Amino acid sequence: MNQLVYEKISRMPQQFVRILYFNHEQNPKQVPKHWHRSIELIYPRQGYMHLWDNGESYKVEAGDFHVINSQAIHACNRGSLDYDGFAIQIDITFIKILYPQIELIAFSNEHTPELKHDILTILDKMVSVKPSETSEIEINGYATVLISKLLSGTTTKNSGIELQNNQYSQLIMEIMAFIDANYYEKLSSREIADKYNLSYGYLARIFKDTTGMTLSQYIKNQRLENAINDLRFSSLNITQIALKNGFSDYKSFDKMFKERYKMKPSAYKEKIGS
């Protein structure tokens, strides 16, 4: 388990779907083994991607898609040099509202031609939504229809997910949920250990073994990923965004942002605006 990386899917309160764009120029060729609690659909528009999903290898080509179930361990290689496509991640809490038994099943990647056509049509509409004040509502609507379509296809018992056998997984998920809800507060690793009546050393070890990152890294990542949403979608200035997301001041936010994204937050905001 310590070879894996947990990927936190960050979102704004009204954002249950995250759409990521990938092409051969802007994104890394390989994404190592990782897992998350969202359903993810790989949707190439050009070229193909090599995907490793829970022990099986797939070649996902343009005109097709692949469903990655929640907590499934997966990795990908961009494949063709002309690759262009999307990853659509739908938050598990959103799906639970629609279908409370979601964590008991796994979606299949075997679909009838009619169902495949319907799903591809929905995916195409989702990735074509233009940013606006109501775009998240529109995307959430498409996501609802998409989940309904996937449920109408073949599902299996969700028995092959390695993380469910990890004796620490439920505790770690509870701690991550606490951080997700309180990342903007003055959190520290030792305070979290005290809250859960654990020694700091013990918590640090099992958290790293389960997620592939330290507690402090997870807190920092959560703050950065929520801050980048504010840079993209809010009218707040950089200092306001820093303080809103748990950074002590502009300087610390600027430094951590540059370390991760290789540019200053002001430059990123300007780039997005243009």
Features:
four-stranded antiparallel β-sheet, alpha+beta, five-stranded mixed β-sheet, 11 strands, 10 helices, globular, 274 residues, disordered N terminus
Low-pLDDT stretches: 1-6, 8-13, 159-165
Determine the mean pLDDT. Answer: 83
Shape annotation: globular
Give helix and strand order, one letter per element, not per position.
EEEEEEEEEHEHHEHHHHHHH
Total count of strands: 11
Distance between the termini: 42 Å
Structural class: alpha+beta
How much of the polypeptide forms β-strand, as a percent range? Answer: 15-25%
Q: In angstroms, what is the radius of gyration?
A: 19 Å
Helix content: 40-55%
Helix count, DSSP H or I runs of 4 or more residues: 10
> What can be said about the biggest beta sheet?
5 strands, mixed
As laid out across the biggest beta sheet, the strand order is 1-3-8-5-6
Give a topology summary.
Elements: E1 5-6, E2 17-23, E3 30-35, E4 39-46, E5 48-53, E6 56-61, E7 66-68, E8 74-77, E9 84-90, H1 92-98, E10 105-107, H2 113-127, H3 135-152, E11 155-157, H4 169-182, H5 189-195, H6 200-211, H7 215-233, H8 238-244, H9 250-261, H10 265-273
Helix pairs in contact: 2-3, 8-9
What report would you give on this structure?
With 274 residues, the protein is α+β, with helices and mostly antiparallel strands. Helix content is 44%, strand content 20%. The chain is built from ten helices and eleven strands. It has helices spanning 92-98, 113-127, 135-152, 169-182, 189-195, 200-211, 215-233, 238-244, 250-261, 265-273, and strands at 5-6, 17-23, 30-35, 39-46, 48-53, 56-61, 66-68, 74-77, 84-90, 105-107, 155-157. The strands form three sheets. Strands 1-3-8-5-6 form a five-stranded mixed sheet, with no helix packed on it. Strands 2-9-4-7 form a four-stranded antiparallel sheet. α2 packs antiparallel against α3 and α8 (238-244) packs across α9 (250-261). It starts with a strand and ends with a helix. The relative contact order is 0.12. Mean pLDDT is 83; it is low at 1-6, 8-13 and 159-165.
